[in-house]
Amino acid sequence: MSPDNERGIGRREFVAAAVAIGGLSALSACQERERDLVGTASDATEGTDGGGRPRTGTDTEFDLSVPSGEPDALSKRQHAWNYAVVHDAHGNTVIPQQQLILGLSYEGSSPPTEAEREQVEGALRTLEEAFQWGTGGNPSASFTQGLLFMLGYSASYFERTGGVPEQLVPAEDVLREVGEDPSKADGFDAVLLMNSDIGSVVMAAEAALFGEIEQVNGVGVTDTFEGVFSKADRRSGMVGKGIPADVLDNDSIPESAPLSMGFKSGYRDSQPSEDGITIREGPFAGGTTMAVSRLGIDLDRWYDQPHEERAAEMFCPAHGTDEIGEIGEKLGAESGITEENAESVEEFAEEYGRVGHTQKVARARDDEFVPTILRRSEGVATDAAQGTEFNFTGLQRHVDDFVETRKAMNTDEYDDDIPAEDHGIVDYLETHHRATLLVPPRPQRALPTGIDA
Q: Which region is the signal sequence (predicted)?
């Protein structure tokens, strides 16, 4: 049974809070609440001092009964997640509920030493040995019991280690190009994105990486990030059907909505293939780029509008609500956006007095009318004030693809007469942070050297 059906609101909120807080005490408490999802290999005093209190220090062991993985069998692409996530009845991918984004500062040598590379690789392989890769490729899986993660590096890291790859554009430059404040750029050297449907899985993985536990899921922790990476920031989030209504203080959010703004995303025709966003040539062939954003959202103003207007602004004014449904469920596998919709934004603006977000960003699709950004998270930020922020993470072959798609959201000169709030969803969003990273292929993920080294 899916954990959505078992958790209930109390557990869901509790786990969200535990992941947001982090630390061994929160991990122990989270394990206890998720015990029936993952099981344990020992009695109820495992991970305590014998009196029910969480142990502290490096002798703490957390043993999650999640099937362990086989690192050598994994794809050479860090971003190969699609085969290892749940798919809904329409074949759309369902990203795991729990998200943990770690912004990292590099503290190692420039360029990195072989010993440092082996240390980072060993730490990452520990996670792959301890947890299965997502669903383990089980096509009938109803939730993601294992762990998915990818590690990307920023321009600041590559500047120190030999040269910035051509596919990577610094976050400051991205912000300038899309008309946003360059001071919102994150200063991370690297970002680790982790996802699972089990909160204690991402928390245990974090604890193992930073040397807070000696064993994780029965696998000894010998290599960690200590001395190479430190945590500059930590962001948690949740995504999934019913979560926004459960965890946000806004009664207007539909109970079954998977996202804060009330509608589904991730339709097959609005997501490129993993092949489509993979770098094809050069020193990082087999990798991709990642844009990680923390966005503010004005939900009160969004929900002040009737459902018909929200649906039109999210998708396309030509699509009636009877075609879309309350949360986009009637669309099935496809968003319904056509090339004609994308090419007729100006005409739609004049006819309907508004334009749709999906309609507008479709203008940035490639020559085959295929999107260029693969969304990997759009989760409610559980470490922020209620309802004010969410995480957005997108993958693309070149950061320029992200830039073009983001620019397509902006208002156009020809529709200046339309109020800002009727230009899709852009007027309801505010960028708080952005980072851009290159995600190397798995064999190069441990402290890669820049292109000129």
A: none
Other C-beta atoms within 10 Å of 340: how many?
A: 9
Query: Under a CB-based contact definition with an 8 Å cutoff, are residues 213 and 207 in contact?
Result: yes
Please state the φ and ψ torsions of residue 202, each to the nearest 5 degrees. -65, -35
Measured distance CA(370)–CA(359) in Å, rounded: 13
Cβ 395 vs Cβ 277: under 8 Å: yes
Q: Which of 293, 387, 300 is nearest to 99 (CA)?
A: 293
Calpha distance 195→430 (Å, rounded): 24
CA separation for the pair 373, 441 (Å, rounded): 18
Return d(Cα 282, Cα 117) in angstroms, integer. 21
d(CA 89, CA 333): 9
Cβ within 8 Å of residue 43, ≥6 positions away:
none
Place of tokens 């602004």: 313
Q: Which residues pair with 99 in a beta bridge?
A: 195, 237
Helix, strand or coil for residue 17?
helix
H/E segment holding residue 360 = helix 357-361
Residue 268: strand, helix, or coil: helix
Closest CA to 394 of 406, 384, 382, 407: 406
Q: Which residues of 355-379 are buried (b: 16+ CB within 10 A; e: fewer)?
A: bbbbbbbbbbbeeeeebbbbbbbbb
Smallest CA-to-CA distance from 247 within 17, 7, 53 is with 17
* C-alpha to C-alpha distance for 412 and 337, rounded to whole angstroms: 19
What CA–CA distances, in Å, run from 90 to 28, 265, 346? Answer: 37, 12, 32
Are residues 397 and 294 in contact, defined by beta-carbon separation less than 8 angstroms? no
Neighbours of 286 (CB within 10 A): 20
For residues 377 and 111, give the distance between their C-alpha atoms in angstroms, rounded to a whole number. 32
pTM for this model (two decimals) = 0.91
Q: How many Cα atoms occupy the beta-carbon half-sphere of 102 within 13 Å? A: 22
Question: pLDDT tens across 61-76, in order?
Answer: 555 667 777 888 899 9
d(C-alpha 389, C-alpha 399), whole Å: 23
pLDDT tens per residue across span 406-452: 999 998 765 567 888 899 999 999 999 999 999 999 999 999 997 76
CA dist., res. 432 & res. 19, Å (int): 21
Of 428, 403, 133, the closest CA to residue 295 belongs to 428
